[in-house]
Amino acid sequence: xxxxxxxxxxxxxxxxxxxxxxxxxxxxxxxxxxxxxxxxxxxxxxxxxxxxxxxxxxxxxxxxxxxxxxxxxxxxxxxxxxxxxxxxxxxxxxxxxxxxxxxxxxxxxxxxxxxxxxxxxxxxxxxxxxxxxxxxxxxxxxxxxxxxxxxxxxxxxxxxxxxxxxxxxxxxxxxxxxxxxxxxxxxxxxxxxxxxxxxxxxxxxxxxxxxxxxxxxxxxxxxxxxxxxxxxxxxxxxxxxxxxxxxxxxxxxxxxxxxxxxxxxxxxxxxxxxxxxxxxxxxxxxxxxxxxxxxxxxxxxxxxxxxxxxxxxxxxxxxxxxxxxxxxxxxxxxxxxxxxxxxxxxxxxxxxxxxxxxxxxxxxxxxxxxxxxxxxxxxxxxxxxxxxxxxxxxxxxxxxxxxxxxxxxxxxxxxxxxxxxxxxxxxxxxxxxxxxxxxxxxxxxxxxxxxxxxxxxxxxxxxxxxxxxxxxxxxxxxxxxxx
Length: 483
Fold this sequence. Notes:
Layout: H1 10-22, H2 28-37, H3 43-47, E1 61-67, H4 81-85, H5 93-96, E2 120-123, E3 128-131, H6 135-138, E4 144-151, H7 157-166, H8 176-184, E5 194-198, E6 224-226, H9 244-265, H10 270-291, H11 298-304, H12 314-325, E7 331-336, H13 345-369, E8 376-381, E9 385-386, E10 403-404, E11 408-414, E12 422-423, E13 425-426, E14 433-435, E15 438-439, H14 440-450, E16 460-462, E17 465-467
Parallel strand pairs: 1-7, 1-8, 4-12, 4-15, 5-6, 5-7
Antiparallel strand pairs: 2-3, 4-11, 8-11, 9-10, 13-14, 16-17
Helix pairs in contact: 2-10, 9-10, 12-13
């Protein structure tokens, strides 16, 4: 047993623990050191700040397929044949109603209406209109609830993405995944409660780690990004020369130091700190296991399509999301960039849909076949929609669309959602909401509700206020899409 130095000064003892970690380089010690230095955590936070859900949850976990850049609703889920009939005619002032435009199209001499060149057909018991670009998702129409009347307040990417992810347009607030894991805790002792997956090799609008950050919540609830390649989680592996036995010995000695400190101070929070080091140690085994798809049957791999065997693709990430979900990870966030099609939209959106359609549909079917869809909430959507007029030159086969916050489409599935539902309606021009509007705050309130949380009661004191994901303005649960 290590003996505590005979001194009342805590400084040298604290430094000795850090020196112990530093001997192991940027390995296991590094991933947990930030937690040790971040200060104490409440006991409630170890298992979730809420002692119990506010009401019976319908979902246990969330898989959020975020389509970064703003997919065009007019090419996917919101069929507007009037735009084809009025092709090239200017957007009527009575439809625009003086609403602001971005500087990218606001200075155009005219705003010519552009109908989609893609065909639509109706699917499922709800008769949902779905584009030919999404043949696999069309076959899952009875599993999803399409919301065609989403709206946001932001017209540019950064504030719009930040709004969807954190409930505010400015940076520094907790992400939705952080709120949920802080409130509900974790269902797996060997993996992070909040995991982030980003499609490899996609450019377009940048993604920042603050989008899965914790803001003013404890940092342990931040999303952990899994990367493709030899090191899925940075700094998790032991450095050269340190094996598992050496790592285990280091943790045992560190535990003894913590025990000495606890005996001297009586601070119960000390016992929670070593748990984070133990988690990092367990992740050295659990992370390689979860990302290894070699044991997946051929028929499952075929379901996700040919890209599933390429690490970092959307298909591979969808399969990994299922594997994380079945292991109890609470919030799994996928980001797929490339939807910002100001020009060359037909070619660009073909590529995007080819990359995402089959994997997203496969994820739903895979979850369903395993009995996981009933308690897993799956969400698909971007930060805003696209304009009904063409940005730049309009031709018979090519056009672009600008940002449009007034209306866009999303879908939800599983975990208490009514499959086959179609909610909300836009005007015949696809420019304004005509019925059933759903604000971003309503979306957040609905997600929280499905996980057993009253959005008005999940709060954290910050700068003298009871801060919450949905903010201070009214928000409602979209009961129309619930089963």
